[in-house]
Automatic annotation (TrEMBL):
Domain Cytochrome P460, first and last residues per copy: 78-217
Disordered as annotated region, ranges: 1-32
Feature: compositional bias, Basic and acidic residues: 1-17
Alphabetized Pfam families for the sequence: Cytochrome_P460 (PF16694)
Protein name as catalogued: Cytochrome P460 domain-containing protein
Species, as recorded: Rhodovarius crocodyli
């Protein structure tokens, strides 16, 4: 396994892929939004006009955000993540013939401090790409010996932390303020990954391996790298 950065012994990195491994690109059908039919020259009925006037006169009560409930639905992928997030690490996985590329939102990178818990609002994206293979099925390598890979990832695994998150998870599961989620390359949620229970393996493994590193791996190591 070749990795940018430096080696960290005693990690269960090969096992990571087992949960949800092989999940392919499942592009959902694009649903066309139907055009709202409009009657040309329709005249508003007085009742509607009155309702609109009342609505305009009384300010709508401020919508309180829905209370936090544990689960992956708290995480949504920003549409511009691929161009905005920063790639701090990547791994060639020889066994699985994939390249894992790791990204974080720039705000979190700017706010992260060595030795301290990662900042609230940290969003880490781990993008799995298939390696490009030669005629014998071996990964093609670039000049530096790193795998060449398909430009589009086939799986996005995400962890995000926010103040107030994590409440409600039992102690043997809770990863501080972190939530986990999995997405397809088109940013739709991966099938079956929509309940807190479905993300349980993520919590268990990260809690077991990296409790002293704020439940993160390469991003923690990047922030705390020797300089
Ligand atoms: C069996 C252990 C294990 C399981 C289960 C697991 N992970 Fe991981 N995770 C790892 C390891 C090890 C790494 C470091 C990257 C590597 O070596 O592949 C990692 C890295 C990550 C990272 C990047 C972290 C960083 O700091 O760069 C994210 C995001 C992530 N995992 C999300 C998830 C999600 C989402 C799930 C569940 C769907 C999950 N993981 C399940 C072990 C696991």
């Amino acid at each position: 396994m070749v990795r940018e950065g430096f080696a960290r012994p005693g990690r269960c990195r090969d096992r990571h892929g087992q949960c949800g491994a092989g999940a392919g690109l499942t592009k959902g059908p694009m649903l066309a939004r139907p055009e709202t039919p409009r009657e040309p020259g329709a005249i508003m009925r007085p009742a509607i006009v009155l309702a609109l006037l009342i609505a305009g006169a009384t300010p709508a009560p401020a919508q309180a955000p829905p209370p936090y409930t544990p689960g992956p639905l708290n995480i949504t992928m920003p549409a511009d993540w691929a161009t905005r997030f920063l790639n701090y690490s990547s791994i060639d996985n020889e066994q699985r013939k994939i390249v894992r590329r790791f990204y974080v939102n720039p705000e979190a990178l700017a706010a992260a401090t060595p030795g301290a818990p990662l900042p609230s609002g940290t969003m880490i994206v781990m993008a799995d790409h298939r390696a490009r293979l030669d005629a014998q099925g071996n990964p093609l390598r670039d000049l530096r010996g790193r795998f060449m890979y398909e430009p589009t990832p086939f799986l996005l695994s995400v962890q995000e932390k926010r103040d107030g998150w994590g409440e409600g998870y039992p102690a043997d599961i809770r990863n501080g303020n972190w939530e986990y989620a999995r997405f397809n390359p088109d940013l739709s949620r991966q099938a079956g990954m929509d309940t807190a229970g479905s993300m349980r393996p993520c919590f268990t493994c990260h809690l077991g391996v990296r409790p002293q590193q704020d439940f993160a791996f390469d991003f923690w190591d990047y922030v705390n790298r020797p300089r």
